[in-house]
Amino acid sequence: MEKSTVSRYVRQEIFAGIGPDGQEKIKKGRVAIIEMSSIGGAVANSLVRAGVGYVRLIDGDYIELAELQRQTIFTEKDAKEETPKVVAAYEYLKTVNSEVEINPVISDVNSGTIDNLIEDVDLVIDATDSMEVRLLLNEACYHLKKPWIYGGTLASSGMTMNVLPGEDRPCLKCFLGEEQYAPGEQPTCATVGILNPAASIVAALQSAEALKILSGSDAVREELVTFDVWENYFDYVPVEKDVECPVCGKKDYAFYGKITGSQTAAMCGKDSVQVIPTKEGEISFEKYAEKLKSQGTVKYTKYTLDFSDGNIEIKLFKNGRAIIKHVSDEKKAKAVYAEYIGL
């Protein structure tokens, strides 16, 4: 007697909100997740298990021990080896669901890379901890008419909002308004901490909305959701379109299409600065190892090269991007990069 074949998605298919037709749409869906943060990793886990046909994982960072408190798909081994986040995520997720095409991309998200990263997907998930990247994503998705799901968490609170295409719909900038922060004014996970449950709730809400959007549901939420797991509140906030919005009202972009020279950015929760060269391109680790070995210790894998002279530590990626460790001043980081790598 032959064993009957039961779909791995049977519990989703019998759910009235999805059904077999909705599951088929999910299977054909293409999603990009911006950064493998605590939110991004959890969303990736949910969507791969749900059978989303194609999932692109985008992140230029590596795993550290202090992140394991809130990460759900990484291990101590990943942190010890400083594995690139998207590589570790890919290695884990491919064992979860071999039916899903998973595309790990080791890349920074900036005005020069954003189009190639999201233009061929149906939905973008925001899991970044950078407001600048989030504002760029808002502009890019509006311009490309891509739906995206904003999500952020800090301390014990979190919020998420669906940002959908349409001239009558609000974008994230409509909600944020013109409020600006000087460097160092905004709290970060390094200054106020972050709780795993808060990140997990944001990821769960984003994942549910992603399944609604991909399956063509009419139950897609229109309000922004905000909550605090410690202070015990959960609220829905209506967001109205601002006709004077510089993004969806006037199409006056502050970030999208503004490709500049070399860039630097302090990394949230790390005593490190990322340096992005003016022109990215694949480099030879063998060449740089030979160049740097007389100045300190060098080791490399197929993903990264690590250099230390006892004071300076550099993690170099194949596209020329680097993370300068134990440095908080962006000018100093740029000078270190110029001295050891060359701008």
Task: Walk me through what this model shows.
There is one protein chain. With 343 residues, this protein is of the alpha/beta class. The chain has two domains: 10-237, NAD(P)-binding Rossmann-like Domain (Rossmann fold, 3-Layer(aba) Sandwich), CATH 3.40.50; 263-340, 2-Layer Sandwich (TATA-Binding Protein), CATH 3.30.310. Helices cover 32% and strands 21% of the residues. It has helices at residues 10-13, 19-28, 38-50, 76-80, 85-96, 114-118, 131-144, 172-176, 189-192, 196-215, 285-292, 330-340, and strands spanning 30-34, 54-59, 101-106, 123-126, 148-154, 157-163, 224-228, 233-237, 263-266, 272-276, 297-300, 304-308, 313-317, 322-325. An eight-stranded mixed beta sheet has the order 3-2-1-4-5-6-7-8, with helices on both faces. It has a six-stranded antiparallel beta sheet with strand order 9-10-14-13-12-11, with helices on one face. β9 (263-266) and β10 (272-276) form a beta hairpin. α3 packs parallel to α10.
Brief description of this entry?
The protein has 343 residues and is an alpha/beta fold. It folds into two domains: 228 residues, NAD(P)-binding Rossmann-like Domain (Rossmann fold), CATH 3.40.50; 78 residues, TATA-Binding Protein (2-Layer Sandwich), CATH 3.30.310. It has twelve helices and 14 strands.
Taken as a percent bin, the fraction of beta residues is 15-25%
Q: Give the termini distance in whole angstroms.
A: 68 Å
Helix content: 25-40%
| CATH homologous superfamily grouping of the largest domain | NAD(P)-binding Rossmann-like Domain
- Any idea what the CATH architecture of the largest domain is? 3-Layer(aba) Sandwich
CATH fold description of the largest domain: Rossmann fold
Pattern of helices and strands: HHEHEHHEHEHEEHHHEEEEHEEEEH
Poorly predicted tracts of residues? none
Oligomer: single chain
The coarse silhouette is globular
Total count of strands: 14
Q: For the record, what CATH class of the largest domain applies?
A: Alpha Beta
Mean pLDDT: 92
The number of distinct helices, counting runs of at least 4 residues, comes to: 12
Q: Report the structural category.
A: alpha/beta
Please state how the strands of the largest beta sheet are arranged side by side. 3-2-1-4-5-6-7-8
Largest sheet composition? 8 strands, mixed
Q: What integer value in Å does the Rg equal?
A: 21 Å
Number of domains: 2
